[in-house]
Inverse folding.
């Protein structure tokens, strides 16, 4: 049972981690908690359903399921990145030098707006994603692992590693780290702050879009309010790992999924949502900056 | 009989009846089904000249299946001076709202709240056209014991008044005859039940009984199959909805047992209702006929009472016998229907089929 719960926790945790990365990257650069980030994830799930439906209707899915899925992911990432980019331009950039509370309130406003926008355009009822993979999978150490779960964990890990490499190894990543450390100094050295901030939102939103489609595939059920609780959980994961720290967000997400699974299975499933916050309180009491919080040089 | 009614109808005089149900959110479909049922009944009355010479108007409110919101919209309906309310759907909304209606002297007829507590408060104006969970849980228990001869059962509920109430009633009736190997709650609105199901699987039950509504039921059975569990799911009237099969997938939903009232399609009196409803709104929801009957009963009581005063209407509701689409309906002292037959349905090839009668 332990191994099965570990798999359950890892799958969900991987998704939490992908969303948490968006929170932590934005916080690292702007010291802003982007409360609308959960809605980008929700938009990703909806766009996934819309594009997949479109590709199915146009006959691409019956030609090649893999191609159709890849294109669905690509389109959703492009659209969500555009949403993230626009969101920053409209709601946060004009407030960049305002008191810290102003962009926070603006973020909550964007979140409410996006939720209602989806509710009005897509309807309030649950949307069902087609059941593509059935129950196919394999048994490992007495635990049932579906192919979809394997795919979710692998894709999450791949994206996390790629992001880590991007930030530590590339020039662009170096610029991001520089902006995170000192905006004024970075700008003096010729880094275009605005485009780096835009890039941060684009990457974060793209990751959230992928998380959204994977969850839509996994549960097969999407509605306009899923962004809220997922956003709160991912935010918790980001704070748990140390907000602003990228390895922290990855670890926080996976750890949160693990804690939820174990708590629900060994204590009681009725308080599943509570365990995450319980752990958060404990971590904040012992180490207020989060588990990876101290390593400021890793901050982006 | 109704000729000339239009002549004595005062201009602008209307009688309002309320519909309170979840119109948005994950149960929005149920709310729409209920509103359509009531609207159809009201349109039929209006076509015949309304009631007491007045036109009837439907006031639909959204309780978002949230008890706080339910109390707020209940107050709104009382302030609008409705002659009566068809609603609410969820027991967790009907029970607190019944206080509001009782204070305001407005009769309410719930089309789907099956928790026993609703009619146990001694309010004279509270009625329901559906059955009660103690009756439903009992039929479910008899089915499991007598028909399936099971020995080990897991019970899961969604912690709501309805879901946990039903699960507890079921548990009460199987106690001593069947071993309950797992009993636990999940969170309504959650999407991931694999952790719970993994614990359930460990206990090796022969059946999972779920007290709750279709979105969670659909995900439960889907994820159980993904974990390699093949045991059937059994649930109550909150799960019997085409969306359940859509969410679970036809294959995973196959062989799910559900307690519900007998098939409307086999009730002769419901034939014209079914035809009219489908012509107007398309596919019928499982609760549409309850809302339709509730609205008709309410309006008939207003007609018999001769006015839309709450007390007079309540008296008529208690004393009259109605023949609706569901057949003969009469309320007992508490406001429950005197006859409430529950039967067991099963899902087969993506459809619900009546399967077993106690």
């Amino acid at each position: 049972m332990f191994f099965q719960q570990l798999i359950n926790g890892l799958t969900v945790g991987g998704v939490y981690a992908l969303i948490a990365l968006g929170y932590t990257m934005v916080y690292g650069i702007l010291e802003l908690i982007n409360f609308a980030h959960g809605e980008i994830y929700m938009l990703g799930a909806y766009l996934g359903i819309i594009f997949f439906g479109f590709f199915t209707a146009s006959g691409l899915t019956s030609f090649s399921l893999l191609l159709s899925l890849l294109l669905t992911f690509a389109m959703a990432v492009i659209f969500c990145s555009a949403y993230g980019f626009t969101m920053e331009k409209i709601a946060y950039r004009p407030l960049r030098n305002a008191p810290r509370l102003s962009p926070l309130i603006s973020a909550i406003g964007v979140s409410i707006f996006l939720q209602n926008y989806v509710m009005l355009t897509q309807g309030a009822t649950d949307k069902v994603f087609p059941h593509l993979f059935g129950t196919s999978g394999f048994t490992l150490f007495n635990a049932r692992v579906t192919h979809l779960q394997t795919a979710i964990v692998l894709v999450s890990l791949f994206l996390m590693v790629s992001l880590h490499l991007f930030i530590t190894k590339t020039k662009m990543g170096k610029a991001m780290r520089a902006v995170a450390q000192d905006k004024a100094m970075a700008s003096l050295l010729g880094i275009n702050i605005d485009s780096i901030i835009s890039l941060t939102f684009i990457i974060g939103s793209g990751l959230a879009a992928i998380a959204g489609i994977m969850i839509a595939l996994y549960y097969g059920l999407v509605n306009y309010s899923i962004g809220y609780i997922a956003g709160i959980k991912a935010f918790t994961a980001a704070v748990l790992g140390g907000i602003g720290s990228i390895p922290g967000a990855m670890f926080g997400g996976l750890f949160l999924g693990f804690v939820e699974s174990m708590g629900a299975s060994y204590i009681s499933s009725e308080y599943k949502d509570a365990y995450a916050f319980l752990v958060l309180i404990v971590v904040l009491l012992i180490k207020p900056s989060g588990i990876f919080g101290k390593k400021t040089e890793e901050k982006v | 009989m109704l000729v000339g009614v239009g002549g004595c109808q005062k201009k602008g005089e209307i009688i309002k009846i309320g519909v309170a149900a979840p119109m948005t959110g994950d149960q929005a479909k149920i709310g729409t089904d209920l509103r359509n049922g009531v609207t159809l009944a009201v349109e039929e009355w209006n076509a015949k000249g309304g009631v007491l010479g007045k036109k009837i108007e439907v006031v639909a409110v959204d309780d978002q299946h949230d008890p706080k919101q339910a109390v707020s919209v209940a107050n709104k309906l009382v302030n609008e001076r409705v002659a009566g309310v068809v609603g609410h759907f969820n027991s967790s909304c009907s029970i607190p709202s019944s206080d509001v209606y009782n204070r305001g002297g407005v009769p309410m007829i719930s089309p789907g709240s099956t928790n026993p507590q609703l009619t146990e408060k001694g309010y004279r104006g509270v009625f329901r056209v559906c059955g009660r969970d103690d009756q439903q849980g009992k039929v479910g228990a008899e089915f499991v014991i007598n028909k399936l001869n099971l020995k080990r059962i897991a019970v899961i509920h969604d912690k709501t008044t309805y879901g946990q109430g039903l699960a507890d009633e079921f548990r009460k009736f199987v106690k001593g005859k069947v071993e309950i190997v797992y009993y636990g709650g999940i969170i309504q609105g959650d999407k991931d039940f694999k952790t719970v199901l993994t614990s359930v699987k460990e206990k090796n039950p022969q059946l999972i009984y779920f007290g709750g509504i279709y979105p969670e039921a659909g995900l439960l059975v889907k994820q159980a199959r993904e974990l390699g569990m093949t045991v059937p799911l059994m649930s109550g009237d909150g799960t019997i909805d085409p969306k359940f099969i859509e969410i679970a997938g036809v294959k995973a939903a196959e062989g799910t047992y559900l307690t519900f009232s007998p098939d409307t399609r086999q009730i002769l009196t419901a034939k014209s209702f079914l035809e009219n409803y489908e012509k107007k709104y398309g596919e019928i929801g499982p609760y549409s006929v309850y809302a339709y009957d509730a609205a008709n009963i309410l309006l008939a009581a207003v007609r018999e009472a001769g006015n839309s005063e709450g007390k007079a209407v309540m008296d008529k509701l208690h004393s009259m016998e109605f023949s609706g689409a569901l057949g003969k309906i009469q309320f007992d002292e508490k406001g429950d229907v005197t006859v409430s037959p529950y039967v067991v349905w099963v899902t087969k090839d993506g459809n619900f089929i009546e399967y077993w009668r106690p």
